Structures are given as structure tokens and as C-alpha cells.
Amino acid sequence: MIKFLIGGSPCTHWSIAQCKARETEPDGIGWELFKNYLIAKEKFRPDFFLYENNKSAAQSIKDRISEELETPLQYINSALVSAQNRWRFYAHNIPRVEQPEDRHIMLADILESGICDREKATCLLGTYDHAGARNYLKKNHGQMIFEPVTEQRAFPVGTTTDGKAYCLTANYAKGSNIKQTVGSRKRTLVAESVSTPAAFAGRVVGRRINEAGHRDDYNPDIPHIQRFEVNIDPQKTNTISTVGKDNMIAIQTNNTMKERKIYEVRNGKILFNGVRYEIALPDGFYTIRPLTVTECCRLQTLPDNYCWMAKKSHAYRGLGNGWTAEVIIHILSHALAGIPKNEEIVVLSMYDGIGTGRYCFEKLGYKNIRYFAYEIEKSAMEIASTNFPDIVQCGDAFSVRESGWGLPL
């Protein structure tokens, strides 16, 4: 049996992002949270321990942590194994741990769509659910992704014989419709081309048809694929029949059910709310979106579906507060070098979060694991326990201070 103590006390009170009442000395709430880790180490007596926290903690705090754990701090940037810049310090008693080899993973490599303006993402934070374009462009917080807008062209509809518009009248707003333009030729309109009518043209009349025929017993290999076919005359429906699919209406929408603003990039600058910001994007028009949960999982080198069971806001918080899995795997692999895969591993995880530590041991090939976790955030516990039902949730980390504390080993 090999015993591991892992964890990283919440960095909220130490982080440089804490504008008010940031703790810069080994005292206060932040230090009390760290002391729980020290007490657990003293009582649990692990073979190996690993502690992680934000590099931006004040030097006096980091020096005291190094002194209490009797080991120097090791600084590692997650950018070596992932697509984000994430500097953290690690205190451990695992020998011969060098810097991970650079895997050259770029932000563009992990995107589901769109393009980015940098090679690596900004550090993913637990507050990412509130990320927006303004903070990203102005303060460099909360990575955003840019979706190029499909080029649209405009053509005049309804012109005079010499190519001019019809006379603009005072009642143009009341009479500027397609009937006035095509029928009586009294109004001039502009037709804008779009890439797909069903996606951009509002209400479009058409029908749903089979692409390759119905699947049946005689042709089991023919897939039942259907597509939307726009009517030649968009003002008329198909013949009414007993089959409901003969008449369909496509309504403009997108995945978020809301329209995103379009921004122009020109000469290396983007105009946002009247201010121009420098940005490394080709000239053109873009919408701006946040990272998806899947993309955030990839930033933390976790499986794409690791947070499938959680609300999006909970997934963002859990991932932003969590570990970069491949950094932890790199460190633990040195402790487990030469250890048989069937060896019993007992893990005490302080401030466990979404169970990344449990994932790392399994990724290293160890199945005989007894994993005890101290965590109180319900959404994080849900993610951890859904992925690994064998995790023993122990509750509040302050309980390690109770007399007679111990794990049922």
C-alpha cells in the first residue's frame, strides 16, 4: 500500500486577482485553509505528498509554505502540456521531477470552431462563466474566440431602365415591400445574399424530403437522411396533404437562441463599444464567443465529456478552480515509477474539487485505488462522483482538526 496526500487550498485570498483584502502574509483565512493540509499531512503520514497553488501568491506566503513542507517550490506553466498559460507552484517530496516536455499544443488545436488571436489561452478561472469581450480586450481576462462572419453581398432589386433607384418618397417606409417592387415597380429594395436560407433568411417556406430514400427491410444500408428544401416560390406552400412534412417553416435561429453582435477588424484593430483595441486577426467581420465547456475541458487536459452532468456555470467554475491534469500526471508518474499497476493506492485529497486527482491515478493505469476526498461544493462533488462513484466524500476539510481523526484504512 502506498499513501498519497494531494491538494491545493483555495487561492481566493492569495491571488493577485483579489483586488480587496488580498492576504500577503501567512495569516488569515487563506493560511488557515493551508493549515488543514499541514494537519492532514501530520496525521495521515503519506509516503508522497503534492501541494499546488497560484504562482501569484505573495512571496512571504510561498516562503512559509516551503518552510512548513520542508521542500522547495517547483514552478510549472501548464502551457507546456496544454493550450493555456497557467503558472502554478507545486510543493512535493517526489524525487527527480523535471519540467514537462513541451507538447506544442496551441489554442487553435482545441477549438470546436472559430479562430483565436493568440497561441495560448489566458488562464482559465473559476469565474469564467462571467467572461466577456470587454474584459478580454481591455483587461486580458477570460479567453474569447472569434467566429468569422460569412461574407454577404447586396444587389439592387427594382430599378429604372437606366439602372437608377426609383424616386424616394416620404412614404417609403410604408410601401417598401416586395409587391411594390416586383409588381408595380414603384419601390427599390436591396437583396442580400446569404449562405443558407434556413440559417439566415427568417421564415422560409419549404418541405422536408429524404436525401437517400426511406430505410426499409429491402434496403437496410440506405440511411434515412432528411434535409430541408426551399420552395421555388417562397410565398406559396406545397399542396396540403395528410403528411405533415410536406410543409415546413424554417425560422432564423442559432445554438444560443440569440443573435451576437458583429465586429469589424481593420488594420489589426477591432472596434468594440467605440474603442479600438489591437488584435492579431485578419481583417474582416467577426462575432465573439466564450470558450465552450468542451474547450475548457481540453484546456485542463480532461476528457471532452468530463463535465457533461453539470450546468454550464458549474462546469466553468469547477474547471477554472481545478488542476491541469497532465501536469499532475507528469509529477505523479515519478512517484509511481516502477510500482506495479495492481498496487493498492490510498489517496487523501484535500479540497478535491472535480476529482482531477482521481482521474490522474486512473490515467496512469492504477485501478486498485481507495480515494478519500474533502470537498464541500456540491456542484464540484457531483462532477467528481459521477465520473468516479467510488470516491469517498468526507465533507469539510476543517474536520481533520478534530481529535481522533483518521481514515478507515
What does it look like?
The protein has 409 residues and is an alpha+beta fold. It has a domain at 2-8 and 46-52 and 71-131 and 292-395. Helix content is 23%, strand content 21%. It has 11 helices and 17 strands. The protein has helices at 29-44, 59-69, 133-139, 172-175, 178-183, 197-200, 293-299, 312-320, 325-335, 356-363, 378-387; strands spanning 2-7, 48-54, 73-77, 87-92, 144-148, 154-157, 189-192, 204-210, 226-230, 248-250, 263-266, 269-272, 275-278, 284-290, 345-350, 369-374, 392-395. The strands form 4 sheets. The chain has a 7-stranded mixed beta sheet with strand order 3-4-2-1-15-16-17, sandwiched between helices. Helix 9 (325-335) packs across helix 10 (356-363). The longest helix has 16 residues, at 29-44. Residues 193-204, 213-219 and 249-257 have low confidence and may be disordered.
Q: Characteristics of this structure?
A:
409 residues; alpha+beta; seven-stranded mixed sheet; five-stranded antiparallel sheet; 21% strand; elongated
Query: Quick check: average pLDDT?
Result: 84
Number of helices: 11
Euclidean distance between termini CA atoms: 10 Å
- Quick one: biggest sheet? 7 strands, mixed
Q: Could you say which structural class the secondary elements and strand pairing correspond to?
A: alpha+beta
How many β-strands, per DSSP?
17
Radius of gyration: 29 Å
Low-confidence stretches: 193-204, 213-219, 249-257
Strand order of the largest sheet: 3-4-2-1-15-16-17
Strand proportion: 15-25%
User: Could you give the order of the helices and strands?
Assistant: EHEHEEHEEHHEHEEEEEEEHHHEHEHE
Categorize the overall geometry: elongated
